[in-house]
Amino acid sequence: MFQNFDTVNDKTRGPARLAALRGELASQGLDGFLIPREDAHQGEYVPASDCRLEWLTGFSGSAGVAAVVGDSAAIFVDGRYTIQVREQVDLDVFKYRHLHEQPLVEWLSGVLKPGMKLGYDPMLHTVAQVRKLTDACHEAGAHLVAVQDNPVDVVWQDRPAAPLGAVNLHPLEYAGEPAADKISRIGKLISDKKAEAAVLTQPDSIAWLFNIRGSDVEHTPLPLSFAVVPAEGKPELFIDGRKLSNQVRDALSELTEISEPSALIPALEVLGAARKSVLVDCSLAGQALYDAIVSKGGSVVEGAEPVLLPKAIKNLAEIEGARNAHIRDGVAYAKFLSWFEKTAPHGELTEVSAAQKLEEFRRETGLLKDISFDTISGVGEHGAICHYRVSYDSNLPIKLNSIYLIDSGAQYEDGTTDITRTLAVGAVTEEQCRNFTLVLKSHIALATARFPVGTCGAQLDTLARIELWKAGLDFDHGTGHGVGSYLGVHEGPARIAKNNNQVKLEPGMILSNEPGYYKDGEYGIRIENLELVTPAQDIDGGDRPMLGFQSLTLAPIDLRLVDQSLLTKAELQWLNAYHQRVFDTLNPLLDAETSAWLKEATRQI
Question: Is the pLDDT of residue 7 over 90?
Answer without folding.
Answer: no
